[in-house]
Amino acid sequence: MGRFPRDSSRARGTRTRAARRVRRFWLVAITVGPVVFLLAALLKPADPRLYEGSTDRPLGYVLEWFRLKSPPCEAEVEGLRYYFDDAWMDTMYLRFEAPERCVREFLVQFGRSGEGFDWERKRREPLTGSSWWKAREFGWLADPAKEYVLAGGDTSRRTHFEVALDPGGPRVLVYLHGYRA
User: Which residues cross the membrane (predicted)?
Assistant: First the structure.
């Protein structure tokens, strides 16, 4: 090899062995990398508590996003299911059953005062309002013979909730709908 590129003993247009290796590495990385990434994303186990069509986010992330804390007695909570849609006004739905004292502790976090809901009333068929449109897809049917407690509040200026409670029985059934505006 000479001092100047023209004086090189290597034929013009040929690559060194090292350059060929680098090129091969990048070709493999560019073709195999996205496939590996896609497979990893597809094989990741989704939370079985998620409703179909939900954005795949862990419950902890969803609760934090809405400035909520999980039910304080998680060991006693049954039937917990949730839905989160970050594309449509950051909408969430949450359903669970728990003893009354556990539900009371969970509900204290709502309301601007931090002492409970901003409003509360009793009515029949609480899941028929326009804000509960997605609840029907989940099979959340209200019994027209029962009276439910319906309450609403905020956990921040932009985060609003409605909660329907079915207090009939040893465990309270909680239906929660929240959105961020």
Answer: 25-43
Domain ranges of the chain: 5-43, 59-180
Give the separation between CA 156 and CA 83, rounded to whole angstroms: 20
Span 149-172, pLDDT tens digits: 888 777 778 888 888 888 777 898
**Residues 6+ positions from 46 with CB-CB distance below 8 Å:** 56
